[in-house]
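Standup notes, structure subgroup. Blocker cleared on the 2-acetamido-2-deoxy-beta-D-glucopyranose input:
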Amino acid sequence: MFNVPILSSITITISLLYLLISTPPKSYYHSLFLSDSLLSNNTSIENHLFTLTKRPHIAGSQANAEAAQYVVSTLTCYNIPSHVRSYDVLLSYPLSRTLVLTPPLPYSPIVFNLKQEVYKDDPYANVADQVTDTFHAYAKSGDITGQVVYVNYGSIEDYEVLEQMGVNVTGAIALARYGRIYRGDIVENAYHARAVGILVFTDRIDYGGGGGHAKWFPEEKWMPPCGVQVGTVFNGAGDPTTPGWPSTGGCERLSDDEVEKGGDVPLIPSLPISWADGYEIMKFIGGEVANDDWQGGKDAPVYRIGPGPGIINLNYKGEQVIRTIENVIGVIEGAEEPDRYVILGNHRDAWTFGAVDPNSGTAALLEVARRLDELQMKGWKPRRTIIICNWDAEEYGLVGSTEWVEENRELLSSRVVAYLNVDCAVKGAGFQPFATPQLDELLIGSAKQVQDPDNASQTIYQSWIANDKNPAIGRLGGAGSDYAAFVQHIGIPGADVSFGQGYPVYHSMYDDFIWMKKFGDPLFRRHAAVASLWGLMALQLADNEILPFNYLSYAYELQKCAGDLKDELINNEVIILTPLFESIEKFKKAASKVDQEKKEMEASKSNSMSWKVREINDRLMMTERAFTDGEGLPGRPWSKHLIYAPSKHDDYGSNAFPGINDAIENAKIINSTETWQSVQHEVWRVSRAITHASLVLNGALT
Ligand SMILES: *[C@@H]1O[C@H](CO)[C@@H](O)[C@H](O)[C@H]1NC(C)=O
Ligand SMILES: *[C@@H]1O[C@H](CO)[C@@H](O)[C@H](O)[C@H]1NC(C)=O
Ligand SMILES: *[C@@H]1O[C@H](CO)[C@@H](O)[C@H](O)[C@H]1NC(C)=O
Ligand SMILES: *[C@@H]1O[C@H](CO)[C@@H](O)[C@H](O)[C@H]1NC(C)=O
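Run returned:
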């Protein structure tokens, strides 16, 4: 049903031929993996998603432990041996919340009910009471009162605008809207602006169809008036009490005080609220009218800056408790190189029902597992080991994947070929790929083999380039999902794919199966397409004799980023970028050389060369590791990758050379000899890392 029909008939013909001869080549199985008539099944994907999302399953809950058992038993049923690796980690839940707005007289105080309502014919009404109250995970408890100040998206730039307007945020309660930066940074920025607390609402202009729109879920895909985006406001990765080491039984833990001093947990209370509540508060903010690009949609009240006259009282009490989380790990052992790993990962825990986030990805993961089982039954064995991971507590701060990577760090860094992540498999239409650049070619090649789920007469690749001649591949510099520990902490090549960009009911109670069935992917074809692409990439990484990595793409990408940096520093006469450009030149030469060797080896096809194959593969595998540095980024020792990491003021941001950029940002503010010297130091560090990488690629001692 999903592949290009010609492929099927070729596949069948080849398959008949191979019945007559001996073992088919791996490529035969790879096309079999894509063939719908034989393997793809959207009904079974739909069934998995339906089962996984029957009730809310937040990390640390009984419901999520049951979901883990479902994944284990499904993998077992697909003949993939699997086990649970659990950790005891610090999670956070709401105990009580009250929010009161005191408008100026003659209006009387408004007590918000802070409830997401069940909708008409809601099939999940009977389990709605299992949805966790809306909150920010790890928010600070407190009882605070202050005048409201509107701070737009709560970015550093927004506070600069407020300062220019002469608005004093000190002692106020900020009202921000979601949408531009990571919510943990929204809270942190408010703290630095000296607000005593912050409310964050889901503005209708961004999540409700732009306003002037009378309908929402379940009639349309938009966020209902009472919908709230829950989420974490933790700015680190992994269990906050075990930074850098695994949360195994009886391990060392930081005290509450030490966690606070670590700087990654918020220091002021915060609460997410709905657009209806956001509008209500906005009506009682006076003062100057905000700029046009700070305003809401058509039906929104006029947004003013304040402070006040409306006064907010927020009383939030949360509990932070150690709970058990469970990663499910399934292993298909490699026949020839069992000590080389290709890892597929997706998380399972959800803020509510999790139909989009993350169980569309879990359903796709189980579909990959099902098809791999079919291949095994037809005689296929992977050359390298394929590991299927289903993470827990991603929503709290990438906790499950981070603890596992921290626990297995050395084995992973010496053995993992690549990590392929899918968080939400489907949010809507449109292919959204991310990768470290040596995987670009593999990603593009794979997209050329999988049918576009929304147009049977073209491939994913064709729809992808329809709008954009050079297919855009995002990079993995943000900390948005479980690839972070693999890529940014230990330097493993990674990719992340999905369909659709933002979706309006994100992290709300309305992210349920009905939303997916009505709006996200009615025929489950996009899910099937993600499974096809994800599995096909894994198969090539696991089976190809020589790893399908192309470092020339990496060299071009580095050149591009260095060019951007040069443009940024155009008026600066102090910083010398020559070492950076020279290191990239060296890297490019090494990439061409290894590419040539690869081609020669593929042409020679001699088994006596197998040690040589292993040698070149090890160079290809280890090159990415050289981009990491033991010390990590300044002030952020866990982030060790010097090319890709989040930017300091937006955890979602995906900058190249984060250390250099942070240093520039700092130098621009302080503008001293010392701060510009540290920019130069960061340039040197990145140049050394790139030089290291080219030495690994070359595979020769100096
Ligand atoms: C697809 O999956 C469903 C449910 O798992 C199963 O009943 C059906 O037989 C499958 N169809 C094919 C063609 O394999
Ligand atoms: C802002 O307000 C606080 C407290 O009301 C005050 O201490 C501070 O000096 C004010 N800052 C400015 C820049 O006016
Ligand atoms: C479907 O793909 C074909 C081939 O690329 C293209 O000509 C056609 O316009 C596409 N249809 C739609 C509705 O996008
Ligand atoms: C699976 O896809 C086919 C067409 O590609 C569609 O007719 C069918 O309804 C889909 N099944 C489900 C369960 O969505």
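Discussed briefly. The two ends are 54 Å apart (CA to CA).
Next: hand off to the docking folks.
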